[in-house]
Amino acid sequence: MPDNSKRILLSIGGFVLLLIIWDIAYALPFTNKILLPSPIATFSALYNLIANKGAIIDIAQTIGRMLLGFSLACVLGVLLGLIIGSAKNLYHFSNGVIDFFRSVPIVTLYPVFIMLFGIKSISKIAMVFVACIFVIILNTAYGVMQTNPLRQKTAKIFGANKTQVFKWITFYSALPQTLIGMRTAISFAMIVEIVCEMFMGSKYGIGQKIMDAFAAYRIPELYALIIIAGVIGFLFNWVFKMIEKKVIPWVGMT
Fold first, then answer.
1. Cα 106 to Cα 130, 181, 196, 244, distances in angstroms
2. Measured between alpha carbons, how far is 19 from 52 in angstroms, rounded to an integer?
3. CB within 8 A of 28, min separation 6: which ones?
4. Could you read off the pLDDT of 211-240 as tens digits, one per residue?
5. Cα–Cα distance measured from residue 23 to residue 168, given in angstroms and rounded to the nearest whole number
6. Reduced to 3 DSSP states, what percent helix, strand and coil does the chain have, rounded to the nearest 5?
7. pLDDT classification of 66: cutoffs 50, 70, 90
8. Which residue has the higher pLDDT, 69 or 172?
9. Tens of pLDDT along 158-211?
10. Domains and CATH numbers, the chain
């Protein structure tokens, strides 16, 4: 059996095992059937949400805000990371400050964003942006710093100018670490967007839908929405892995 097929089957097997454990837990006599609905009830609620288009707008709004904040963070974060990583003194000068802001839990800044932007979409996009940008800057700058100087010197010996060395050697050497930062950031983006919707409130969004289901005690729907959020995050991570394989196929080659 090819390795790819084997990995897919093993991954599916993991989800099947999870469903079996869930069903067994539901069947136990001491399990609260209200707080833990059966897999059938949950997936029935999931089907109704999708079939009746009850969650389509919410999914679109959540993904839209998340991607906008993430995309802005990628553009500015990669640019700043390349600049910072290209100057050793600048890297050491700014590394501590950037790492500090990266380490600040974004939810602690919630009141600040409310004061600055209110509770509209811009505040959620801004929080996603801030949650992502420092991770991307650090990883990009680190990737630039780790560029093999021998490759740069060799390129110069063969007549490459500074721009060509940066474009064809430094940038591509930093690319694997840059993509690691971006893949980490996209997970943060999803988490922060949903948390923002839950705390700030929103007309549409998965986070808002989760809070509505919780307030109305629609437990199967609550679990179904959590599954939707998990699937979205899983798919984004999977797509990003596929992009990495296309963009940096040399990584991991023996």
1. 8, 17, 10, 27
2. 25
3. none
4. 999 999 999 999 999 999 999 999 998 898
5. 54
6. 80, 0, 20
7. very high
8. 69
9. 777 778 888 788 888 889 999 999 999 999 999 999 999 988 878 889 999 999
10. 55-247 (1.10.3720.10)
Instruction: Classify burial at 110, counting beta carbons within 10 Å of its beta carbon; exposed 0-12, middle 13-18, buried 19 or more.
Output: middle
Cβ distance 206 to 190 under 8 Å?
A: no
Side chain identity, residue 174 = A
Query: How does DSSP assign 46-80, residue by residue?
Result: HHHHHHTTTTHHHHHHHHHHHHHHHHHHHHHHHHH
Q: What is the pLDDT of residues 117-139, one digit of tens each?
A: 888 889 999 999 999 999 999 99
Q: Is-contact 125 69, C-beta < 8 A?
A: yes
Interatomic CA distance for residues 168 and 35, integer angstroms = 56
Answer whether 92's CB lies under 8 Å from 98's CB.
no
Tokens of 76: 């500015």
Which H or E run includes 254? none
Who has greater pLDDT, 12 or 72? 72
Determine the Cα–Cα distance for residues 186 and 174; give it in Å rounded to an integer. Answer: 19
Tally: H helices and E strands in the chain: 11, 0
